[in-house]
Each structure stands twice: as structure tokens, then as C-alpha cells.
Amino acid sequence: MPNFNRVILAGNITRDIKLSYLPSQMSVAEFGIAVNRKWRGKDGEDNNEVCFVDCQAFSKIADNLNKFVHKGDPLLIEGRLKLDSWTAQDGTKRSKHRVVVDSFQFLSSGEAKQEAKPDDRHFDEPSPDDDSIPF
């Protein structure tokens, strides 16, 4: 039987990225994302449920997240689910799931954007010259 482990989430970053390094000097970014679910019940009342998910990214993805993403920013992430297990100081066994991020996309917050500065959190793309447009 084939296996498939893929997670796609869109939500808001719950805390600033915490960047650290492995002994091999590979960067590791840890952060949380909150995903909201809204629905209207049979009684007509609006309901809201929030799911908080811990995330981890490595290497260039970690560096880019650290550089461009901050608490409160909307983000779409894609990755795989991983189970981490450990023994706590009191001897109890603990575990938690987290998403290991393979890719991400910036999402619009829906708010009016301020004028962009060169070091704002976006990738600069060259703008085409008027002469390069064929019509």
C-alpha cells in the first residue's frame, strides 16, 4: 500500500521566527501558524475554531522565512507531518506533531499595502521597460 504524507495550511504566523543552527551549520526555523475555521451552526449562530500548529523549516526556506515573515503575517505552507517524541525531565514520555515545511507562499493580508521599501519583505523583480512591451 502506498503512503502519502502531505499538509497544506493557510493561516497567520503566531510568533516571530526562531532561527537556530544544527551542528552542520544548516539553519532551522521554528514558528507557529494559526488556522481559523468559521462556520454557521444549525441554530444560525456563527462559530469559530482555531487550530495552532507548530512548524519547522530548514536551509534556504528557513533563511527566507526568517528574513521575510513576522508575527501576524498570513502565509500558506506546504510540507509533511512529523511526530517528535521525547522524555521530559520528570520522566514522562511526550510527543507532538509538527509540520516540516517544504515550500511557502506569501498571502495578502487584505489590508491596504504601505509603499514598499527596498528591504521590505518581498522579492524584488525587475520591472519591464516600456520599450520591451510588444504592443
CATH class descriptor name: Mainly Beta
- Strands, total number: 6
Gyration radius, rounded: 19 Å
Tell me roughly what share of residues is in helical segments: under 10%
* CATH fold type: OB fold (Dihydrolipoamide Acetyltransferase, E2P)
Main β-sheet description? 5 strands, mixed, barrel
Terminal Cα separation, in Å? 54 Å
CATH H-tier superfamily: Nucleic acid-binding proteins
Sheet with most strands: strand arrangement: 1-3-4-6-5
Strand content bin: over 45%
The domain tally reads 1
* Structural class category: mainly beta
Put simply, the count of helices is 1
Using the alpha-carbon principal axes, give the shape: globular
Would you identify the regions where 5 or more consecutive residues have pLDDT less than 50?
A: 112-135
Please state the second-level CATH architecture: Beta Barrel
Please characterize this protein's 3D structure.
By secondary structure, the protein is mainly beta. The chain has one domain (7-40, 47-110): OB fold (Dihydrolipoamide Acetyltransferase, E2P), CATH 2.40.50. It is built from one helix and six strands. The protein has one helix at residues 59-68, and strands spanning 7-13, 18-21, 27-40, 46-58, 74-87, 93-106. It has a five-stranded mixed β-barrel.
Keywords:
135 residues, mainly beta, OB fold (Dihydrolipoamide Acetyltransferase, E2P), 5-stranded mixed beta barrel, 1 helix, 7% helix, 49% strand, disordered C terminus
